């Protein structure tokens, strides 16, 4: 490219192209270097400062831009378009810089150049997308073209609108018809831009009995038009879809065109399927859009071109009205909007444009997903669109479909809504997982009114920008299949988890429809106010300790702590399950661990008061012991010199007395037992640590909460029973010789070794247990005292 830049006679254009190349290379290299450094941030751009008086060079400014673009990403950076722009993207970006340079030319050259750019781009778009004898309006906001078209329709139908203004509209209110499947916010945007009240919008429902449920109901539309005419209103404009924003369905544009011609309504068409007009074969429903009054194209999205304007093609013979409506302009700056698209279309050429759109249409995911179990394709009767919308689907034995959108006759609406919200979370989780695993697929998670949360694959809007290939589609199908066991297993364990938590004392099941895991549980401690929704500090402390204990178990489950749904109380969220989980063991472990944490925390809270009282009591008893010692020894022994002489002539045999504080019992005990028997006894046996009612024997290397696969229940039960019997036999055999055989003739005990009874008594001595009076050892006096 450097050699081609040297051939340019204009040095400014050559320098501009060189600077753009260097700037894009610097940004891309800097981003790559940032990823290699594992997201290290440059703090120079994080803190805003004053404008430097001496100025900065280009490298410093671009470094600041790069830092602002990627320096604040705490998580892993997702794939961005700057990585897949390519040279055609650089051409589109060059158009913006070139437009600023062209605006500095003299008026005559500027007029000729902008007229040429506008006419060439309009002609190319009309020929590529089969819209003959059309005009073009280029705009940055996709909806702006439709707003201008509405202004043109108002000026065309209301001849006195320029003079009388709103009075004309008040006498005969205009009506704009939108499909119920139109993109959200479109009607409100039009009313805000046109200054019309919301009653001027008419929402046309989609088919309910015949045809696609995402296509406009033509018969119902005709009924609405007749009713509006009878009420004295003026049907003004109809917005049809050639590929709805949600599922990519195309309305019956041919019948809608006939209806609009009958009642004098302006027909405007928009949608992603208009891109297929550039192909050799086009479906009849999309081909009918070439006869409409106007259409909005988004070539930047279809071709993967950044910063390229959208284009609205229209047919109208009165240039004065188009000028009043804002569709045409005499300002060169408005005409220069088409410059990036003008450059990009020339760079790609007709073959390159057709090839990109054809490649996106050939990325068919529908055929592969039909072979995958538990995946329901919601849009399967639309053959002209590559858009695929799918959803996880499973039927449990003996029940209605879990993800059924419409309530059945034997199911309460509340239960259906609860199951739908719960399974919507699973589909959102599936969509997010697939987006991370296959970022080149361009998947989006969306919510449909009747079906709920779904995953959408729309290659016409993402394939060119992300570089999606056929291998990415195959990888996407493989990832869907790999996630199905997790989804099915989690869905099967949810009801069992709810029942186990409901039957466990101290645990409360939290119904959170937005959590995709097994479930949510909250531990109710002794001082928990069940009627309060405020933050509970004690409960938060218990749940934090519980979360730490559960994560230390190193199981395959993921645990998370967060606020309860619809309240501020802390809960434990259990994640997805990849294998069959012993839910009863899981719930029991949560309850026992939480109860243990609560008792330990309560013991620590009471320890300060208990220790303080114990110290006070010990001080009183020690003071009393000192007073008794004074009475026993006499006053003379307390005098320093006299007491030493007296003690030398007549020593006092004083007993060593002290006090020990038992933390478990919270009481003072005498130390006489310690000095006599040379061991420290506990006095009171500490309470047993709370544990489960049953213990599970795990195989070596088996992680917690795992149980045998359901497909091999019979084998696992037989093996477990036989294994238990073998253990009992081994225990019986090992205990038999010690109990039945005589001690003297026992072959297993070497000579001189203690008998089991002696070993048991020795163990009792080590644990501080008191022996009978006859077995108490005699304390011998040292030889020096004898």
TrEMBL record:
Polar residues compositional bias, start-end: 682-694
Superkingdom of this protein's organism: Eukaryota
A Pfam family: Pyridoxal_deC
Ranges for domain PDXDC1/PDXD2 second: 385-491
Alphabetical GO biological process terms: carboxylic acid metabolic process
Biased composition (Basic and acidic residues): 28-40, 723-732, 771-786
Entry's Gene Ontology molecular function annotations: carboxy-lyase activity; pyridoxal phosphate binding
Keyword Nucleotide-binding among record annotations: no
Keyword terms of this UniProt record: Decarboxylase, Lyase, Pyridoxal phosphate
Segments of this protein annotated with the region Disordered: 28-49, 681-786
Coiled coil stretches, renumbered: none
InterPro entries: GrpII_AminoAcid_Decarb, PDXDC1-like_2nd, PDXDC1-like_3rd, PyrdxlP-dep_de-COase, PyrdxlP-dep_Trfase, PyrdxlP-dep_Trfase_major
Record GO cellular component, one term: Golgi apparatus
PDXDC1-like third domain segment(s): 497-602
Cofactor: pyridoxal 5'-phosphate
Family in the record: Belongs to the group II decarboxylase family.
UniProt-recorded name of the protein: Pyridoxal-dependent decarboxylase domain-containing protein 1
């Amino acid at each position: 490219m450097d050699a081609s830049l040297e051939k340019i006679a204009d040095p400014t254009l050559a320098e501009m192209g060189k600077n753009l190349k260097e700037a894009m290379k610097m940004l891309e290299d800097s981003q790559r270097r940032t990823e290699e450094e594992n997201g290290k941030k440059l703090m120079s751009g994080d803190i805003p400062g004053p404008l430097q008086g001496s100025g900065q060079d280009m490298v410093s400014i671009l470094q600041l831009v790069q830092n602002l673009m990627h320096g604040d990403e705490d998580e892993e950076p997702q794939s961005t378009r700057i990585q897949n722009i390519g040279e055609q993207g650089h051409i589109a970006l060059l158009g913006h810089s070139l437009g600023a340079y062209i605006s500095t030319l003299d008026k005559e050259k500027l007029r000729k150049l902008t007229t040429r750019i506008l006419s060439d781009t309009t002609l190319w778009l009309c020929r590529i997308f089969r819209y003959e004898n059309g005009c073009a309006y280029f705009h940055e906001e996709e909806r702006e073209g439709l707003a201008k078209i509405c202004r043109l329709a108002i000026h065309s139908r209301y001849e006195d609108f320029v003079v009388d203004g709103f009075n004309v509209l008040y006498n005969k209110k205009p009506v704009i018809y939108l499909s119920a499947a139109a993109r959200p916010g479109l009607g409100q945007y039009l009313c805000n831009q046109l200054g019309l009240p919301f009653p001027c919008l008419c929402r046309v429902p989609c088919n309910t009995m015949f045809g696609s449920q995402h296509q406009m109901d033509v018969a119902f539309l005709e009924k609405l038009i007749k009713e509006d005419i009878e009420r004295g209103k003026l049907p003004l404009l109809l917005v049809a879809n050639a590929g709805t924003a949600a599922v990519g369905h195309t309305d019956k544009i041919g019948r809608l065109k006939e209806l609009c011609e009958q009642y004098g309504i302006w027909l405007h068409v928009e949608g992603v399927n208009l891109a297929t007009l550039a192909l050799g074969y086009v479906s009849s429903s999309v081909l009918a859009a070439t006869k409409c009054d106007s259409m909005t194209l988004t070539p930047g999205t279809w071709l993967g071109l950044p910063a390229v304007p959208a284009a609205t093609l229209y047919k109208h013979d009165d240039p004065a009205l188009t000028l009043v409506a804002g569709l045409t302009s005499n300002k060169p700056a408005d005409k220069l909007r088409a410059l990036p698209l003008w450059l990009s279309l020339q760079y790609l050429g007709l073959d390159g444009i057709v090839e990109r759109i054809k490649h996106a249409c050939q990325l068919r995911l529908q055929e592969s997903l039909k072979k995958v179990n538990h995946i329901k394709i919601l849009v399967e009767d639309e053959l002209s669109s590559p858009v695929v919308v799918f959803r996880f689907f499973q039927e449990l034995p003996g029940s209605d479909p879990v993800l059924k959108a419409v309530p059945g006759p034997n199911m309460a609406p509340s239960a259906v809504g609860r199951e739908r919200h719960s399974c919507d979370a699973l589909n959102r989780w599936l969509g997010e997982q697939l987006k991370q695993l296959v970022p080149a697929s361009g998947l989006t998670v969306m919510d449909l009114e009747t079906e709920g949360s779904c995953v959408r694959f729309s290659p016409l809007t993402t394939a060119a920008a992300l570089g999606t290939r056929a291998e990415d589609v195959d990888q996407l199908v493989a990832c869907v299949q790999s996630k199905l066991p997790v989804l099915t297993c989690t869905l099967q364990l949810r009801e069992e988890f709810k029942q186990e938590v409901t039957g466990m004392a101290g645990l409360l099941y939290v119904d959170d429809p937005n959590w995709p895991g097994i479930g949510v549980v909250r531990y109710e401690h002794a001082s928990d106010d069940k009627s309060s929704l405020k933050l509970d500090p004690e409960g938060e402390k218990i749940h934090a300790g519980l979360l730490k204990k559960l994560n230390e178990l190193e199981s395959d489950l993921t645990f998370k702590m967060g606020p309860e749904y619809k309240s501020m109380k802390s809960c434990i969220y259990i994640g997805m399950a990849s294998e069959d989980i012993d839910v009863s063991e899981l719930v029991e472990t949560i309850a026992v661990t939480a109860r243990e944490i609560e008792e330990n925390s309560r013991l620590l809270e009471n320890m300060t008061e208990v220790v303080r009282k114990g110290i006070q009591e010990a001080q009183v008893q020690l003071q009393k012991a000192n007073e008794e010692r004074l009475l026993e020894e006499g006053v003379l022994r307390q005098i320093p010199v006299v007491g030493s002489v007296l003690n030398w002539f007549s020593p006092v045999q004083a007993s060593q007395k002290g006090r020990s504080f038992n933390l478990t019992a919270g009481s003072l005990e005498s130390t006489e037992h310690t000095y006599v028997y040379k061991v420290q006894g506990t006095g009171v046996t500490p309470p047993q640590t709370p544990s489960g009612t049953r213990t599970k024997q795990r195989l070596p290397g088996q992680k917690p909460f795992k149980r045998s696969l359901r497909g091999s229940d019979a084998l696992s039960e037989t093996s477990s029973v036989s294994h238990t019997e073998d253990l009992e036999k081994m225990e019986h055999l090992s205990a038999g010789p010690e109990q039945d055989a005589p001690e003297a003739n026992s072959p297993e005990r070497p000579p001189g070794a203690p008998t089991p009874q002696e070993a048991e008594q020795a163990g009792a001595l080590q644990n501080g247990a008191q022996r009978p009076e006859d077995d108490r050892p005699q304390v011998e006096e040292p030889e020096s005292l004898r």
